[in-house]
Amino acid sequence: MDNAGKVLIAQGGGPTAVINQTLAGIVLEARKFPRISNVYGALNGVEGIVNEDFIDLTQETSHNLEQVALTPSSALLTTRIKPNENYCKEIFKVLKAHDIRNFFYIGGNDSADTVRIVNEQAKSANYNLCAIHVPKTIDNDLTENDHTPGYGSSARFVVQAFSGINLDTKALGGVYIGVVMGRNAGFLTAAASLAQKFPGDGPHLIYLPERKFSLEQFLQDVKIVHDKYGYCVIAVSEGIKDAAGTPIISTLKNNLDTDSHGNVTMSGTGALGDLLSEYIKDKLAINRVRSDTFGYLQRSFLGCVSDVDQHEAREAGERAVHFALWNRQTEGSVTIQRTGYYSVNYHLTPLELVAGKTRYMPDEFINQTGNHVTDAFKFYVRPLLGSGLLSPAQLRSPRVPKLLLPNS
Amino acid sequence: MDNAGKVLIAQGGGPTAVINQTLAGIVLEARKFPRISNVYGALNGVEGIVNEDFIDLTQETSHNLEQVALTPSSALLTTRIKPNENYCKEIFKVLKAHDIRNFFYIGGNDSADTVRIVNEQAKSANYNLCAIHVPKTIDNDLTENDHTPGYGSSARFVVQAFSGINLDTKALGGVYIGVVMGRNAGFLTAAASLAQKFPGDGPHLIYLPERKFSLEQFLQDVKIVHDKYGYCVIAVSEGIKDAAGTPIISTLKNNLDTDSHGNVTMSGTGALGDLLSEYIKDKLAINRVRSDTFGYLQRSFLGCVSDVDQHEAREAGERAVHFALWNRQTEGSVTIQRTGYYSVNYHLTPLELVAGKTRYMPDEFINQTGNHVTDAFKFYVRPLLGSGLLSPAQLRSPRVPKLLLPNS
Fold first, then answer.
1. Domains annotated on chain B, with CATH
2. What was the pLDDT predicted at A408?
3. A92 touches chain B (CB under 8 A)
4. Which of chain B's residues have a Cβ under 8 Å away from the Cβ of A8?
5. pTM for the complete prediction?
6. Which of A97, B138, B211, B243 has the largest count of CB atoms under 10 Å?
7. In Å, what is the CA distance from A215 to each residue of A170, A192, A203, A207?
8. Is A307 one of the catalytic residues?
9. With an 8 Å Cβ cutoff, are B292 and A293 in contact?
């Protein structure tokens, strides 16, 4: 196919710590091809295409592109818009007007679907277009991928956070609940397990959206851990649901509102972590219960990044250009396959296998009681966290015999 | 004074990322003195003293001590107990029984007060004791100190967080509120200002407990910034209060409860960030308003540390031992003075000048309108953040002329 002309790149969906590596990979690689006249970037994803908000990335220094690659969040800005057929027609009109022959959309499964629709419209208009989806998502929930760029760095943030939180909660006692992103897939929450180093380390309990969440079982789990270790650290996916599929945040609100204890008056927009904390305080009479919602820190924190994730995000962008400009393939989604421990390769996969689909944690990654992960998951996730991860240490000094009190 | 005998170390109050550097500094330095028979650590601060929960740090490898020094949180565990006279009598009884002649308590202003009381009791009992307070606090609110160990690393976390948050919010639009620790002193929240690099970068607004917080002024500030830049990033101290001294979290609850709009039903334990978000959504009709409470991440995150802070925490511990064992001083609080840009020195300051006192942000560090910091503050805080801080980059490509839409 003749795809001489212009390249257009856009970024969609939630930002990640390495999405600009992919951007830099595409720009730097595409600029090497003489038949490419310009490399454009659309601002704010598909919105920027429809509005013709383009910048000319051909006029960007390589040095600055390398610096942007190290910068978290989407340098081209982003959008939450999920285009329908008509919206895609508008997109296609603009691509045609600007003689854009190669379209790279970096995003999740919704972005893959946009690429799919735009590509169909180009085909039926007999317009030569190469439309390629390049993966990113901290949720790690794209089908056909061993994992996705963005996940490793966010997972590393979660591990570093829980490593510290384990020690902080151990030092002060009580219960800690960390609420991690992931409405449908628990991969990011599960990464917290890598914070466990010494016997007794937290997170002691991990609750994922792939398993039905029972408040009774939860209380029992917390009590057992707290009794045993004197503290309890819990990682919870924001998306946990009960047996009926109702989000726990709704269940808890009702539960606490109708409670007869009187001192619990939760309602409104209280976060899941706050609600679970109140519930534990109320039912288990543990005084010190704290929770944090990791929120936007876990996807955009400057300087917490997996080098493996950086390299793969970069390569995914470069390979996307190879598929388009060397191999002259007209459509597809770049996917990552694991080929060794640890090595990967990149394929171009039909868009319809990725578009609009969600991948979940496989059963073998979740323990039998549904409140933690398996070693198989730890084996899976470890290389994605990258190199140079600090390992906490603890004192090993012997006890001194008591002189005044009876030694116990 | 003859302080031959044992050394006892304890850690009090909230953990920090470098409090174990101070511990390692004391242990490694004290073990060099032949007249010191043992170096004990009390578990859980003063509670561990009263309960004789001691470990013998003389039997700890140097390698492991160095590893523990790199580990956040209090390796000896900690306590929130503020001992009164009677509690201090119990402490003193145990010190005597174990022939402890040197007591180092690493903590904030409450810990300094404990050291002061114990020392008085030793004096009136004619018991030779050297009692020294070694500073730590992420709040940076100890008097007589230019700054305190623990602050620089937490400040670095806040800068890295807001650097990413600025880019994340810019990419998606809307308003973001980050709630930072600091009930009385705004130093940690103010550090967010160092995340601003390019013109227009956030945090655009910074609210500190040192200034009365007005909800009307707040709304006006947010509207001006959001209109100008299309997004608005805000750093807020957890301790902000209104003109009457009422915490804003209480003011907001009442305000929102009695609001006639009907769709706001906040009550209970909703976090300050959630309440402020609801308030903005309600009053300014901005759709995307998000907030995160940085919580425990900002003081214990593994691997986000200022090397300057590490070195000073270590030196504060070493110098404490020097004051006790070389200089044979019997009491005091180790304080840090700034001697150049950037260099420091350590003094032993009378305990009563530090104990129970709080330092606030000086006026010259806060801007006139009370919604941001001055360059004087940035100059003050920059060296404390340490080396190797990543600097975000942004694209500088020229705009492409529109072909279909009118160019604006």
1. 5-150+305-353 (3.40.50.450), 152-302+363-385 (3.40.50.460)
2. 67
3. no
4. none
5. 0.95
6. B138
7. 24, 21, 18, 11
8. no
9. yes
